[in-house]
Amino acid sequence: MKRRFFSTTALALGALAAASALPSWAQPQPQLQPSGRIGSLMQISVVDRGTGAELPLYFHRGEYWVAGRPGARYAIRARNAMGERVMAVMSVDGVNVVTGETAGVGQNGYVYGPRERSDITGWRKSDSQIAAFEFAAAGNSYASRTGRPDDVGVIGVAMFRERVAEPPPPPPVAPVTPYPRRDEYGERERRSESSSMGDARAKSAPAESAAAAEAPAGRLARPAPSLGTAHGRRETSYVGKTTFERAQSSPDEVVRIRYDSRENLVAAGVIPVPPPPPRWPRPTGPSAFPGSDTGYVPDPPPRY
């Protein structure tokens, strides 16, 4: 059975109640994306709303990272790269951004039309309002304040393709009966039927394309991040409703982006810091440039 959903302006929100299944986590690509976007079904990026710029993504030890500034508002920007509708179930700090539930891939999400782009700017409060996403201390994050601090510091997007109705089968064709023929002696004989070819092979339904990787066996060992996402000020953001039937219960793609302050990411080696410029070694013996006075060559003192 189908559930109905919301959306922002032209963007529709939708989902279908699907059987629970383990998410298939998309493997990140081992490079820094210059444009700050990742994903194939949809291109996902994080936008600083103060400047309008997409924040650069850093790839470090199998994870994508983005640096946030405490107090800055941000948005999750998603672009549908497909010529069909795609649903994106989004989570921040392990919380569904639409329903406020502890995030699961079978929950409600935003439905994007073909080639559509939209910024998700906050926690959905109603059909017309959101509470802005805002970088804040981990203890002031919405997840921590609602008793769910374990997954603070991560943004996730699970993407689903839509089930396409199969065309009706063509009408059956009546078999053609061959005419009998007579041999040279006038005796009537019928054409013998060809023998069947051994045992018929059983037709097996094609397996669904589950996303390849297994869910992580356990929680990643990591220090608690210093940044989380606060429940910011209320803003106007209109949403519509639609229905969406997933092609399969497990996501076709999952994107995960972790975040923290720039200072912490530099200290952890996520953001590379260029080495300081080399200093000229002070030579032994006389110096070629012992002073730094400017001007022209003065006259020498008089001889005695």
How confident overall, as mean pLDDT? 78
List the total number of helices: 2
What is the radius of gyration computed over CA atoms, rounded to a whole number of angstroms?
32 Å
Give me the count of strands.
Answer: 18
Main sheet record: 10 strands, mixed
Distance between the termini: 111 Å
Which stretches are low in confidence, meaning pLDDT under 50 for 5 or more residues running? 1-10, 15-34, 184-222
List keywords for this structure.
single chain, elongated, ten-stranded mixed beta sheet, three-stranded antiparallel beta sheet, 304 residues, 18 strands, 2 helices, mainly beta
Please give the structural blueprint.
Layout: E1 2-3, E2 12-16, E3 42-48, E4 58-60, E5 63-68, E6 74-80, E7 86-92, E8 95-96, E9 109-112, E10 117-120, E11 122-124, E12 129-137, H1 142-145, E13 154-161, E14 181-182, E15 188-189, E16 227-236, E17 240-241, E18 253-261, H2 262-267
